[in-house]
Each structure stands twice: as structure tokens, then as C-alpha cells.
Amino acid sequence: MWSAWNFDPFVLGALVVLGALGYAGSRTATERLCRLGACLALAIAFVSPLCALATSLFSARVLHHVLIIAIAAPLLAVGGRPDGSLLPRLPLFVPFAVHGALVWLWHAPGPYTWALSGDVSYWAMELSLLGSGYWMWREVLGARHHAAAGLATLVGTFLHMGLLGALFTFSREPLFAVHFGTTHAYGLSPLQDQQLAGLLMWVPAAGPYVIGALHKAMALLQRVSGPGNAS
Predict the structure, then answer these.
(1) Are the C-beta atoms of residues 42 and 18 closer than 8 Å to each other?
(2) Three-state secondary structure string covering the chain
(3) How far does CA 31 lie from the centroid of its chain?
(4) C-alpha pair distances (Å), 27 with each of 73, 78, 137, 144
(5) At residue 88, what are phi and psi to the nearest 5 degrees?
(6) Closest CA to 59 of 187, 212, 211
(7) For position 85, what pLDDT does the model report?
(8) How far apart are the first and last CA of the chain?
(9) Closest CA to 216 of 154, 161, 157
(10) How far is Cα 83 from Cα 227, in angstroms, rounded to an integer?
């Protein structure tokens, strides 16, 4: 498995272009590091052996998705989010709801199985998760919304992802037939694989959202304690 690197020209080319544009368009060293960090997270998700492992283990697929929505997406947002002047100012609930709905949709047995049935459906899943995750993080971390709204969005995301992870962890039977015959080679039953996936979504994936929520809470406290402080 450690030799199963994905050298698909499309994937490599997209990462190179993203990295080059990010590096060239960075205004500060922090932005440059964040964009390069996002490219690294995406490379781990799509190029490293994790990508191949995710075809056999649902837990690896969940880790793959955590890298996309909880690591790459916020780093892309921090590293160069647009000011939003050309975009309509929608309530923060909209990107929160869209992203949350897509997370639940693509981790339901039917849509998940369909996503693994072909290239078009696979990339529909991956790009919609990345795009909606970036949209939500950009709006949360931007200046167009009150810090309280950003805090509520991150806490809400943490809670609904934790609920989804708990459903996988405490399920008494495996739900994903596509992995019924692929997990035993790795010493896991399909149910154990699913429970591990739930724990990954429930606990480690919460880290970035907790960090973001603490940042927003600090900003909110500063705004309350001093009228001259920005949110």
C-alpha cells in the first residue's frame, strides 16, 4: 500500500497550478504558508497512498474528507479569501446549511456508493465537499459577518459532524455494502472500519472547528470588552 501513489496527470497538474497561483498571489508570508499547507493537505488526500486506501476502508475515506474540509478548506480561506465584494451577502446560515447537507449526503450509504461508481460521481463528491467547505470557512473567517455568527456556525458544524460520527460509531451493523469485502485484508471487519470512521469524524476532525470557534470567541470577547476593538 505504501507504494500506491496516485500520479494521475490531472490531479498533479491541478495541484501544481493551485500551488503556483497561491504562491504568486500571496501578499504575505502567512498567506503563502497557508496556501502551500492547503496544497500539501490536498496532496496527502489525492496523491499519497491514503487515496488508494480510501477505496478499501471507509475510515480512510473519512480521513481523506477530513483533510479536505477541515484542513485544506480553512487554509485556503486564510491564505487568500476574496473580499466578497462581487458576491451577494448571504446569511452565514446558507453556506453552513449547504456544506452540512453535503457532508451528510455524501456519507449516506446510497450517495456514497454512487460516488465510488465512476469518475464523474467521484469528483462531484470531492469537489462539492471542498468547494462548500471553502465557502463556509471563507465566510466564517471573513469580515462580512459578526463574530457571534461565525462562532455559532463553527459550533454548529462541530455538533452535526459529531452527531454523524456518533451514528457511525454506535451503529450495530455495517451500513456501507461497498466495503463489505474490502476491509478484512487490513484486519478490520466492516463494522470496525465504520466505527473507526465515526471516531475520526467525531474526535480528531473537531480540532480545526474548536480552534476556529475559540478564535471567534476571543474576538467576540474583545468586541464586548472594548468598543474600539474589531470583530
Answers:
(1) yes
(2) CCCCCCCCHHHHHHHHHHHHHHHHHCCCHHHHHHHHHHHHHHHHHHCCHHHHHCCCCHHHHHHHHHHHHHHHHHHHHHCCCCCCCCCCCCCCHHHHHHHHHHHHHHCCHHHHHHHCCCHHHHHHHHHHHHHHHHHHHHHHHCCCCCHHHHHHHHHHHHHHHHHHHHHHHHCCCCCCHHHCCCCHHHCCCHHHHHHHHHHHHHCCCHHHHHHHHHHHHHHHHHHHHCCCCCC
(3) 19
(4) 19, 12, 19, 20
(5) -65, 145
(6) 187
(7) 47
(8) 47
(9) 154
(10) 24
Task: Give, for all 231 residues of the chain, the pLDDT tens digit.
Answer: 778 899 999 999 999 998 887 777 777 888 888 999 999 999 999 999 999 999 999 999 999 999 999 999 999 998 765 454 455 678 999 999 999 999 999 999 999 999 999 999 999 999 999 999 999 999 998 877 888 999 999 999 999 999 999 999 999 999 999 999 999 999 999 999 999 999 999 988 999 999 999 989 998 888 777 655 444
| C-alpha distance from residue 58 to each of 106, 113, 128, 142 (Å) | 12, 11, 19, 33
191-105-181-167 Cα dihedral, nearest 10 degrees:
0
The C-alpha cell 455524501 sits at 106
Q: Which of 156, 56, 57, 42 is nearest to 100 (CA)?
A: 156
Q: Is the pTM of this model over 0.70?
A: yes
What pLDDT shows up at residue 206? Answer: 92
